[in-house]
Amino acid sequence: MITVANLTKKIGDIQALDDLSFSAENGQITGLLGPNGAGKTTCLRTLFGLLKPDSGTATVNDIDVADDPIGAKKQLGLFPDPFGLYERLTPREYISFFAELSGMSRKQAKQATANVIAQLKLEDISDRRCKGFSQGQRMKTALAQAIVHRPSNIILDEPTRGLDVMNTRLLRDILLQLKAEGHCVLFSSHVMQEVAALCDRVIVMANGKVIAMGSPDELCQQTGKDSLEDAFIELIGTDEGIAA
Ligand SMILES: Nc1ncnc2c1ncn2[C@@H]1O[C@H](COP(=O)(O)OP(=O)(O)OP(=O)(O)O)[C@@H](O)[C@H]1O
After folding, report:
1. What was the ipTM of the complex prediction?
2. pTM of the entire predicted model
């Protein structure tokens, strides 16, 4: 479970997070939906301990990220930018490097890497260098890295960016599988269809604040609209920065 409580963060003159509070439950996919500049990335970076909030707390399975960053990270998988893979490494080397960073012994890391390679059906590329990989191959390698240590919580920042339809569907299936296994999945997006199709709960954000939260159906009911897209525009007051 992931909880943020009263998070504030000012970057330069911009109030990127403004008293932001919400939680994401186990066994659910929670979407952080907001227009460009809403503060989604800032929130996720704070959760992963990459940014220090000015005030408020971020906790992962009740571990305060600021007090125990290593303990919190063990419970958290971060889906990184798939374009930032180490090109000289093979997926097997890359994934097991991160498994060891999470605190596993070399032997445990080797086994965990073999398991995740089988789970994501990466066998055909697992011993090729990442250089030249397609976007889908990169996505799967990045995701394998995020889940190799079996974290109970996974956060993903705009995971479908740059993916084609097939790979978007593949990622969707993997997220649904993680949810079915009881993981807490939190992802940010400004793509309405993706959020409507996947999320049990949606946190609507703008200007660093929570504007509304609920299931896609509840948000439609709250606003008296038929689609999440119309509900979102009603809540935010504009369709700027949103993709259908
Ligand atoms: N390093 C930085 N320097 C200056 N301003 C920043 C920095 N990081 C974030 N901001 C500002 O903080 C606000 C929130 O940015 P953030 O990247 O968290 O939004 P986002 O919701 O992830 O947007 P997007 O959908 O465009 O990725 C924006 O106004 C952004 O310009």
Report:
1. 0.94
2. 0.88
